[in-house]
Design brief:
By secondary structure, the protein is of the alpha/beta class. The protein has one domain: TIM Barrel, CATH 3.20.20.100. The chain has helices spanning 32-44, 58-67, 88-102, 120-133, 146-155, 174-182, 202-211, 215-225, 237-243, 253-260, 275-280, and strands at 9-11, 17-19, 23-24, 48-50, 76-81, 109-112, 139-142, 162-166, 186-190, 229-230. An 8-stranded parallel sheet has the order 3-4-5-6-7-8-9-10. The protein has a two-stranded antiparallel sheet with strand order 1-2. Strand 5 (76-81), helix 3 and strand 6 (109-112) form a beta-alpha-beta unit. The longest helix has 15 residues, at 88-102. The protein is globular, with a radius of gyration of 18 Å. 44% of the residues are buried. This is Aldo/keto reductase. The record marks 80 as: Lowers pKa of active site Tyr.
């Protein structure tokens, strides 16, 4: 990944260019909260917004983008099909519902939110139709391990362009980074700051002091230097702005390895093989 500034992009395997830095809006309340967050982000130079039908804020996301003075084609918008809507017909219906809520003609990226076992192949068949129709310029998956990705690649006709997984210093999953790199599938991380749990880590604090940066900024810079698209979420203007101030320093290879060494396979979310039980117990 060639890291330049907040306007930098990576090229997906279908040729589409995608910003490597964006705003996640998980748990941002629909209406003023998510609209304000997006306004702060766009003002700070962000051009990538990541939402999902499950977040229940697609209407606010679409409204904020329409009300901005930035052309739609300059903003990269992602949404996702939720578990209950998967399967062939359900997925085709789900994207139409998302587009209606967003009041958009297309998504830049559409993802399978979780790999529902019995319908994964059929859901991907619908994703391929969505891609061919132009309703999504790129398609991919979230929350997968190797065997789920293998199923898609072996049974589908279009290779995923991106995999979005939980990714932070305590959950590197180097095997999945390598898997995607070998197949030219872009990796993207959610929960890059481990829901705040990583911010008091002494290793990261020491590195942050050296560069006069926050621990969050160090982690987000580490994401990019690992070749991972990052989408930190916040609704606070100062934090949204600070999260993007990561292009005036560079971690050394030793510092990247120090952060890598914090990995202990600790998750804040569900494991891709057990998410059905996780959500059933919510």
């Amino acid at each position: 990944m060639n890291i330049t500034d907040i306007n930098g992009r990576v090229k997906l395997n279908n040729g589409l260019e995608m910003p490597y830095f964006g705003l996640g809006v998980y748990k941002s309340k629909d209406g003023d909260e998510v609209k304000n967050a997006i306004n702060y982000a766009l003002k700070a130079g962000y051009r990538h917004i990541d939402t999902a039908s499950f977040y229940k804020n697609e209407e606010g996301v679409g409204e904020a983008i329409r009300e901005s003075d930035i052309p739609r084609e300059e903003i990269f918008v992602t949404s996702k099909v939720w578990n209950d809507d998967q399967g062939y017909e359900g997925t085709l219906k789900a994207i139409d519902e998302s587009l209606a809520k967003l009041q958009m003609d297309y998504l830049d990226l559409y993802l399978i939110h979780w790999p529902v076992p019995d319908t994964l192949t059929e859901t991907w068949r619908a994703m391929e139709e969505i891609y061919k129709s132009g309703k999504a310029k790129a398609i991919g998956l979230c929350n997968c391990v190797e065997h789920q990705m293998d199923e898609i690649i072996e049974n589908g006709t279009i290779k995923p362009m991106l995999l979005q997984n939980e990714f932070h210093p305590k959950l590197v999953q180097q095997n999945m980074l390598d898997y995607c790199a070998e197949r030219n599938i872009q990796y993207q991380g959610w929960s890059p700051l481990m829901r705040g749990q990583i911010l008091d880590n002494e290793v990261i604090k020491n590195i942050a002091e050296k560069y006069r940066k926050s621990t969050a900024q160090v982690v987000l810079r580490w994401d990019l230097q690992k070749g991972v698209i990052t989408i930190p979420k916040s609704v606070h203007e100062n934090r949204i702005k600070q999260n993007a101030e990561i292009f005036d320093f560079k971690l050394t290879e030793d510092e990247v390895q120090q952060i890598d060494a914090l990995d202990n396979n600790e998750r804040t979310g569900a494991h891709p093989d057990h998410f059905m039980e996780h959500f059933a117990n919510k």
